[in-house]
Amino acid sequence: MFHRIVCGPCQVEFQCFKNGVLLVDYASFGAYKSWEADEWRCPNCGTKIITGFADRPDHHIDPGFAKGIKAAEEAGRLRGNYETSPLGNHAPSLSA
Ligand SMILES: [Zn+2]
Fold first, then answer.
1. Of the four listed, 1, 11, 22, 65, which is most buried by Cβ atoms within 10 Å?
2. pTM of the complete model
3. For residue 84, is pLDDT > 50?
4. How many Å apart are CA 65 and CA 62, to the nearest integer?
5. In whole angstroms, what is the distance from residue 13 CA to residue 94 CA?
6. CA of 57 to the centre of ligand 1 (A)
7. Do 57 and 11 meet the contact criterion of CB atoms below 8 Å apart?
8. In the chain, where are the structural domains located?
9. How far is CA 81 from the centre of its chain?
């Protein structure tokens, strides 16, 4: 069962901002999976989230994997999922 996504601080529903982004999962060795998904945004604070994933990802061993990432980047629809933040920050503690 799907319920619309709600921004906790703002208490309003997220709205679809961009259909068809390409979310790439990165590991220490680089890109290893890519997923078609959608980007949603809180209309109040502007926080963006990625959701609505396709059933299956493409894998780094699939033909055209790198080409697909490059095309998504050129189209402005590339998003990333890193094991740790590329900015060097770590996710905040859940108990905070
Ligand atoms: Zn918000």
1. 22
2. 0.81
3. yes
4. 6
5. 22
6. 29
7. no
8. 15-90
9. 6
